[in-house]
Every structure is written in structure tokens, then in C-alpha cells.
Design a protein that fits this description.
Oligomer: single chain
Bound molecules: NADP nicotinamide-adenine-dinucleotide phosphate
GO biological process, one term: phosphorelay signal transduction system
Helix content: 40-55%
Shape: globular
CATH architecture of the largest domain: 3-Layer(aba) Sandwich
Distance between the termini: 51 Å
Strand content: 15-25%
CATH topology of the largest domain: Rossmann fold
Largest sheet: 7 strands, mixed
Pfam family, one: Response_reg
GO molecular function: glutamate dehydrogenase (NAD+) activity
Number of helices: 19
Protein name: Glutamate dehydrogenase
Keywords: Oxidoreductase, Phosphoprotein
Amino acid sequence: MANKRITVLLVEDNPVYSRLIQKLLSRSDYPLFEVIQVGTLEGALDRLSHGGIDVVLLDLILPDSTALDTFYRVRAHDMRTPIIVQSALDDIGLASKAVENGAEDYLLKDKINGATLLRSIHYAIERTHARGAEWSSSMLHLAQQQFLKAAYISGLDDNIRQRLLFPERAQIAALPFKRDGKDQVETVFAYRVQHVLTMGPTKGGLRYHPDVSLGEVAALSMWMTWKCALMKLPFGGAKGGVRVDPATLSKDELERLTRRYTSEFISLIGPDKDIPAPDMGTDAQVMAWIMDTYSEHVGYSVPSVVTGKPVVLGGSLGRNEATGRGLAYLVGEACRHIGLNMNGATAVVQGFGNVGMHAATFLAEAGAKIIGVSDVSVALHNPNGLPIDKLKDYVRQHRQLFGCPHGEIIPSRDLLELHCDILAPCALQNQITAANSSRINCRILAEGANGPTTLEADDMLDARGIIVLPDILTNAGGVVVSYFEWVQGLQNLTWPLEEINSRMQGVLTDALARTLRRSQAEKVDMRTAAMIEALSRVGAANELRGLFP
Ligand code: NAP
């Protein structure tokens, strides 16, 4: 589990109380706290000017300032950082006035303990994030930039352009769920966003990650629209998310959270409305809980409300590994296109979860030598090739790659810069940027993750002749087999694995061929070509349906 670190500015002149706060925070394993203590208002303002503070614990009575004036001056100096006021019992009126005027919370010094302190900090940061940054997301910015570029080049009708720039529908919930063995109820923010309702039901994964926000989910839902349209699937794009770190939850907590999520969003989802699937931090088990909760609500079994569920519940053969398998198919096609022999080609894979692990497996099966892989915990390198099966066994036992003896540890930031033929970022967004793209050393960049490359980096990679296989094409194997799962579910049929794989290969290679043709005909990079291909379909559907009323 990655260690989240929170920097607290403790503004307090009483040494006994300062020591108590530091002691309470030092006992937390997750998140970890760094406490910076100052004893005066001037000291606090000076430290805030340097940035990097996540939350301020503020005593209102200081040697150089007293009462609400202390709060007002800190607030005026820094409008964004959440402030928790600390007060004695006899100052409670003052503290609640500070809250009325924008402090996130107050803590009573006489009653403070580790649990109240941690909860107060956690919620202060969460609320500030929810208030200020829901739409402000670098991912949404990237998704919109990519869209606007393709819309401009393809001459998309301006009315449709404005319509597609933001999602049609979004719902936010503050979700409560019970923690194990505690009386505590945790409240987290949860989202479901539907970008385009024109093409049929909406479709998109559900992500559990501590950075999830409305903007991020909106970006992911936009990419789903383009992906489904590029693959010619009868879906619009959607996405869901919960701002939570699933690695900190027990299985029971994960189940309670998932069931509550389903019930909060039950009016939005359904086999004919919106069909969730796994994404980062969720898996087939999470889909099974969603299906069960939904079925309990309507009174009969509805397997087609989700895809990516276990096979025994109506999941499709091949869905679990489909995204990685699809990536390897497309890399094979791209190798043929540029005359690169897959057999012996070197490959680097960032991320060793569902997409990365299967991508590495199928690339290796096709003859590629996997010389680097990483997850959150570590990056491993072996110029002679890493034994992927042994790495998978290790992760099955230990959850992460950390401690795995089969490769040399390298700094994570160096992994993407390893010299190789095929680079597959399969973890997070925003990994290849203007800052590192000049050091990317591959011939084919195959995007398993959503949004790993910024627009500036795209231009730089294109100028260097690196073929970028864009996310909406390269990781579409998952949604293609999800579509097959949905179709099988609606018809109560089961297709054999060979049929599923060959149908998926057909859909992906057709989409690649169309993208290559557009790229060459319109002299644009592969991402823009794939987007234009997708936009032409969504634009035509919008025009044909017309606008109600
Ligand atoms: P996942 O199963 O949760 O795996 C994510 C992997 O990325 C884990 O190995 C994680 O490491 C690793 N990771 C996270 N942050 C990292 C970092 N900073 N550096 C290196 N590794 C890091 O998620 P997934 O389903 O594979 O999804 C990965 C990406 O593919 C996402 O962008 C997702 O939207 C996209 N995608 C997924 C699917 C699908 O079918 N699942 C389909 C299309 C697109 P730890 O395990 O150590 O946390």
C-alpha cells in the first residue's frame, strides 16, 4: 500500500498541547503525517507562503494575534488550505464563529484524542476538495483538449461540439459505510457520470481510488464514448468512481461500500440504461456485489446490469484478460505495420494490475521480452527478460511486486525511460508529459491506461516518429468483450472462448485499420485520427436523432 503523507501546519504556542498533537499524529500508520509547528501568526503566514501545507490546525489565541482576527488573517492569506480551529471549552463561541466564517471544523482541546483528530483532518481535506476541485481536473482538461483538437480538424458542428464538451448527466453522493469492529461510519464521495445518452445505454467502469473526483470521472466517461464509437458498439460513455483507497479496506468494508454505492445509484444503472464494469481498484467480485444488490432491489436476477462479473454468474469467458489481450493484438498489428519482429522485441509495462499483468503475459506469449515492469511499490528491470509467470505468482501471494527477487530494482521514474521497442503504460493517467517525453525511448507506445499521455507529449512523440497507439483504441478490448458479455446475457447464450477472442480481434483490427487510414489520409497523429473516427459516428447519431423538443 502506498503511504499517503499529509503535511499539517500546527499553529500553537502552548508546548504541552503541541507535543500532544504531534504524539497523536505520529501514531497513525495511514496516512502518515508531517507536522510543522509554529508559535505565532507571523510564523504561520510565512510558512503558508512556501506552500505544501495540506491542513492548518490553528489556535486562535497567539502571542501576536487573538480571537477571530487570527482566523481572518490566515484565511485572507491563504484561501484554499483547510483550517481547523482549536479551542478551549470556554472559547467555543469563538470557534463556532470561525466555522461560520469558513473554517472547516473546530476541535475542543480538552476532549481531543487520536480518533477525533484524524477524522477532523480527513473530513476537512475531503470537504475542501469536494468544494473547490470537483470539475478542476487535469484529466478532464486533457480529455477536453483532445476532443477540441479533433472537433476542430474534423469541422464538427458547433452545437454538437458544445453539447459533447461536458457530460449529459452526473450524480454525486456522500456515501456512508460502516468500518469493521468500530462504531465509526465512514463517509466518502461517490460519482456516476453519463457522457452521451444518444447512442444506446451508457457503459463504463467503476473506479475506487483516493484521487477520484467529478472531473476525473467525467474525463473517463468521455473517453468511454469515443472508445465505444470507435469500436462501433451501441453504447454511450459513462464512468463511476468512489474517492477511497481500496487497499485500506477489509473485504467486508469493500462489500458494504459497494452495496451502498449500488443502492445510491440504482435509478441510474440497469441493463438498458447504464452498465458498470471493473476499472482501477475494482474487480469481478465487486461486480458480483453490484449485480446481487441490484437483483435484490428489483426482485429477480439481473446479470446484465454489470459486465466483468465472475463467469459462474454469467460473466463472459475471456473478459478478465480482454484488455491486456487486446493490447497485445494491436501491438502485434502495429509491429507488422512498421516491420518490427515481435519475436525478441523488448517491452516495458508500467502497472501490474488487471491490464498490465495481462498485457505483459500476452506480449511475452507473442515472443516479446519484458525487460521492465512496475506497480506502486517498486519498478523491476532485467535486460534479459523478466519471468512474468513468476512475477504473477509472487503478486498472487504478496499482492504487490515489492520484495520480488526476479529483477533489479530501479527508480520508478526511470522505468518509462528504459530503451525498448514497446512501452505500455498500464497504470495511471498523466505519465508521459512534456517533461519526460524527450527521454521516452521506444518505437511503439501502447496506452493500456486511460489518459497516460498529455497533448504536448503527443506532439513531441509524433515529431520523433514514435507510433502512439491511443488509449481509446488500445485498451478497448475490455469494453468489446464487455459488450459480448452483455449480448450473451440478454440472449442467455454462452460463446466459447475462441469465438470471443477471434470476434474481439476482428473488432480491434478493423478499428486499427480505420484509424491508420484516417491518420494517413488526414495527416494527423493516431490519437486524433481515432478521435475523428469516433466523433464522426457520435456527430452523425446526434444529427439524426435531432433535439428534443
Ligand atoms: P488495477 O487492476 O487496479 O491495477 C492498477 C495497477 O497500476 C496496479 O498494479 C497498481 O499498483 C499500478 N499503479 C498505480 N499507480 C502506479 C504508479 N504510480 N506507478 C506504477 N504503477 C502504478 O487497474 P486496471 O484495471 O489494470 O486499470 C489500469 C488502467 O487501465 C486505468 O487507467 C484504467 O482506467 C485502464 N483500463 C482498465 C480496463 C480494465 O478492463 N480493467 C479497461 C480499460 C482501461 P498497486 O497494485 O501496487 O496499487
